[in-house]
Structure to design on (385 residues):
């Protein structure tokens, strides 16, 4: 991905900060105001900026995209309540949700509790059960550098394609912007024992077969949960295909929308881009009803999070007070080609893709990547001393 792409995105779409109750949400909001809305929720090490390429491409064709970072909630139920409060504060009655990894699991948790509000789900490298992951003991008591080292240990290493190496590098920089408390809260949600029930909304699964973070058993369990869903299995793409394969993810989302009859909005209409619209009083009142009444902390000032997020808009929303104010058919799999364009069953698609995947071979467009970061190196230096 190029630095120019990121700068172009940030020149059009500022980072917004909204406090609802005790939690602060950071998000980007772009696209036609009245268009169908896709809310993107990242995984363990994602922030809102990791969806910048998908946000720009989908907004260009007429969809509104809101990409959010996971707030400092420590349980699945807490996230569900706060996510609903955020949608209320933004005045969103119905949304499609795209969740990556942990974000996909949390999206399913929310859909189980608020199915009428969720129009559909797109699950990217996600899962339906947390028991497949190593549990982190007492993450709140562990130092920040140790938590980040634990997360980095799960990242791919060695020789990978250049696009995947760039996506890893980008996510590593975002991981370093997370505080120890934020990362500990996410690890607590990943460690919390939970098995969800299949959601009752349309589901599309986008899965990369070279994803090394989500175990293969977890993917198989996901396929069993949604045997009638649409599947897009990518032979390569790594853990963050929305960064390494944005065109493919964009195309599959469009196919999903067209299959549901979700038409794009008018790109010549009012656009949500500068992020200066304050939530309405009615929206804030609805959000306040979902969270316990308390006095929210003062607005958090801008700080340097490692990226030049120009034009950041900070909005504090205390609970106790209110401020004034295409594709015609499912015909293409990037990894599993089918001459007739039919939708495979989960078992057939998974088996076919596995059988057709060649052994990994170095290519001209490959790069050797190490997940050793600056804070890990500093810790090693201290140990040597």
């Amino acid at each position: 991905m190029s630095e120019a792409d990121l700068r172009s995105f940030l020149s059009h779409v500022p980072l917004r900060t909204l406090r609802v109750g005790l939690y602060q949400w950071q998000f980007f909001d772009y696209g036609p105001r009245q268009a169908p809305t896709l809310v993107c929720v990242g995984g363990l090490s994602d922030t809102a900026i990791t969806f910048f390429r998908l946000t720009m491409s989908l907004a260009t064709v007429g969809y509104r995209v809101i990409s959010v970072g996971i707030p400092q909630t420590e349980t699945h139920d807490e996230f569900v309540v706060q996510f609903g409060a955020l949608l209320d504060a933004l005045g969103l009655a119905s949304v499609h949700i795209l969740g990556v990894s942990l974000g996909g699991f949390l999206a399913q948790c929310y859909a189980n509790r608020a199915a009428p509000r969720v129009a559909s789900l797109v699950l990217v490298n996600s899962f339906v059960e947390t028991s497949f992951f190593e549990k982190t003991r007492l993450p709140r008591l562990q130092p920040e550098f140790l938590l980040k080292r634990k997360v980095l240990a799960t990242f791919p290493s060695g020789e990978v394609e250049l696009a995947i190496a760039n996506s890893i590098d980008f996510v590593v920089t975002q991981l370093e912007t997370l505080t120890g408390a934020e990362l500990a809260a996410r690890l607590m949600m990943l460690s919390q024992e939970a098995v969800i029930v299949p959601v009752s909304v349309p589901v599309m699964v986008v899965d990369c077969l070279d994803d090394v973070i989500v175990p293969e058993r977890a993917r198989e369990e996901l396929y069993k949960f949604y045997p009638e869903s649409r599947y897009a299995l990518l032979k390569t793409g790594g853990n963050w295909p929305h960064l390494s394969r944005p065109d493919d993810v964009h195309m599959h989302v469009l196919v999903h929308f067209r299959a549901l009859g979700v038409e794009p909005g008018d790109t010549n209409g009012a656009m949500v881009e500068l992020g200066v619209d304050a939530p309405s009083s009615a929206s804030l009142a609805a959000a306040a009803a979902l969270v316990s009444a308390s006095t929210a902390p003062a607005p958090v000032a801008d700080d340097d999070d490692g990226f030049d997020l120009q034009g950041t808009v900070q909005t504090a929303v205390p609970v106790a007070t209110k401020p004034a104010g295409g594709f015609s058919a499912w015909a293409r799999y990037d990894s599993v080609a089918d001459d007739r364009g039919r939708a495979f069953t989960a078992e057939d698609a998974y088996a076919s893709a596995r059988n057709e995947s060649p052994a990994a071979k170095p290519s001209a467009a490959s790069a050797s990547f190490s997940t050793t970061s600056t804070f890990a190196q500093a810790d090693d230096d201290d140990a040597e001393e």
Residues 274-385 have pLDDT under 50 and may be disordered. The CA atoms of residues 23 and 71 lie 6 Å apart.
